[in-house]
Amino acid sequence: MGGLRSVPGDRVGAVWVVLVAATLLSFWLGTDHGLGSAEARGVLILVVAFVKIRFVGRYFMELRTAPTPLRVLFEGWCLAVCLALIAFYLLG
Question: Which of 41, 47, 51, 64 matches a 20 to 30 Å C-alpha distance to 24?
């Protein structure tokens, strides 16, 4: 039965790999590897974090198949909170 894999399972596995890679990228950026300014690294880490939040919501909380208003609300929340945190970070 190991050979019978569903397409959604493959998609979730691929998303998991992307999440792990994004986590490693965030860690690498956060350990001051001299890639640009500290502000640019901080903004990039926040963006990566919200991309991860979006993937978790869509693929592990099944929001990709949720009713359209709920999906739009979730996407809007991700964007608004990410932009607000970036603004607080840069202005604070």
Answer: 64
Interval 27-45: pLDDT, tens: 998 887 767 888 999 999 9
Which pLDDT belongs to residue 32? 76
For the chain, the domains span 12-91
Residue 1, SS3 per DSSP: coil
Rounded Cα gap, residues 54 and 31, in angstroms: 24
The sign of the dihedral angle between the CA atoms of 46, 49, 53, 58 is positive
Tokens of 90: 């840069």
Taken in order 66, 71, 77, 79, the sign of the CA dihedral is positive
